[in-house]
Amino acid sequence: MSCLEPQRKGPFGPPAILPDTVTLEARDLPGLRPVACVAEGAEVAIGAAVMQDRSRPEIRVVAPVAGRVERVEAGLGCRAIRVVIRPDGAARPAPVTVEGDTRDLMLAYGLWPDLRTRPFGRVPDPDASPDAILVDALSGAGVLAAQATPFALGHGLRALTALTKGPVILCQHGGPALASAEGRVEIDALAPRHDGMARRLRRLRSVARGVEVWVLDVQTAIALGRLCAEGLFDATRLVEIVTPSGGVAGILRAPLGADLAPALKERGWTAPAPRPLRRNETRIDPRCDMAVPSDAALGPIVPVPALATSLPLGMRTIPLLRALQIGDADTARRLGCLDLVEEDMRAASTICASGADYGLLLRRVLDELEAER
Amino acid sequence: MRGGYLATLRARAARDATALRLAALAPPAAVLFLSAPGAAWPHLLAVVTAALACALVFAEIRGRGPVFEALVPALLMFLFAPPEASPGQIAFALSLALVLGSLIFGGAGFGFLSIGALSLALLAFSFPPLAPVVPVDAVIWAALPGGLLVLLAGLAPWRVVLAGAAGFALAAWPAALDPGYALPLALVLVHLGADPFGAPVTGPGQWLSGLMTGGLVAALAAPGLPGLDLSAGVFAVLLANLFAPLMDAGVIALADWREEARRA
Fold first, then answer.
1. Mind listing the pLDDT tens digit for each residue in B180-205?
2. H-helix or E-strand containing A9?
3. Is residue B147 in some structural domain?
């Protein structure tokens, strides 16, 4: 597991699938106002910019595959909604042509939009510096990728220390460390049981009282490590496929924005409704895709222990859920909602009998609190 | 697999709350009915009709249900109502409790009182000689598996039950402590005191609420009355329910203050 292992030039894990189209969605860029920087019919190379933020053009979304731009959808004020690319061939690592520090490389190769701030879950400002960076290695796909490329991961983690004066903490489950702790790189493997990033954040560096932390997936850190150490840009990610009963069907490698449904059907796995692979998505769970938000009036919250433990330890879950239901932003902030983002509320939405989509309710409250800042 | 079943039960408890609570109350209600069908059927008919009628009227007005939650306080009223009460008196008290304690707030789960306790209290208030009574031993024994079910599912906070027993023992010690109180007290604590919507939701709040309920059951009991005084139990539960939001707010404020002090 040492970072002194020889460099790997070839891909690891399963070969990348070849999707019919790759769809890059603006909804994966919270806090940005993207505009398209390619026209329909244009040829794009891997790593070419296809969208950029209107006010901070250095934040870019790049093409994960080479191909032709099939469709550019824009909304009010030329705001990009999605860009669809028809690939010429399979996604493969491309040589790096840009030089610079970590920040420059992440911005140039479209890794910057993978970062999320806590609180508020936004793409961070390119000039900002967080109090710490948490690297999420809790997903099955992330662990597999980290185990396959410890060299790139070590480089990526060290490169991330250039973005912050605080620690870079790799959050993993128990077992052998996925990378070595050195300098400001720390490993958090204290909690062997299954937990999520919200619990780690709450325990390691709560942002409920003023600090800012950035969170990114371990595969983005690996991609950054490959950029820095191997000079290769790899836009593919491993994705864990879950069966309807909750077991793991297998692992796929796919470029961002690929529709996985045809590949899943080919393998005889349960396929979700056709949709592009979202940014930072490392798990396709048909059970989550089946949940359809209802317009019906919300029912009561039944305060059972399973619901009370669905949020990180130390949180007053039931009072917080009640505050979210009535949109009481001040109480929700006092109860620690700033430590949370939408995906942390999935378990509460599943267990609660009220029928509320707590992710949506949390977003409304976070938007209100962000506007008050 | 036991752990698996229990985990599934606890994960589904919120969605199946009404079904589980009705399943817990059905055996004692059935035993009570079968012990004296002739006397029991008018009471059972009265509580079920009153509960469903109130719930249906409000569901019709609001354009949304569900209505079966109202059967939980209906069965509690059936279990604890005195045999000498007329079906009309029982139906009146239950309807009043459902409307005032639950339906005007939006239905079961939106109020803050145990509707079962409220209906028994309203029966005692409205028709003074009609105090709630502890059912016969066979009914209490039949209620035990259901009590265990709601405790395991998490629909009755165990802290309230445990603290309630401790509070009663402390307040009654040593003169009025009788092993015969154990099962009726457990029945009151599980089905009335540990009401999921009436009890506090924070752990320390549940301990406090349980201690208060148990202590008040002993303190409010009429002297010289044989067995557990259920009127005291009902009023103790209602008083603890009234204080539950305050207890939760106090616990959260204290936790915030400690957190601030730790960070300062």
1. 788 999 999 999 999 999 999 999 99
2. none
3. no
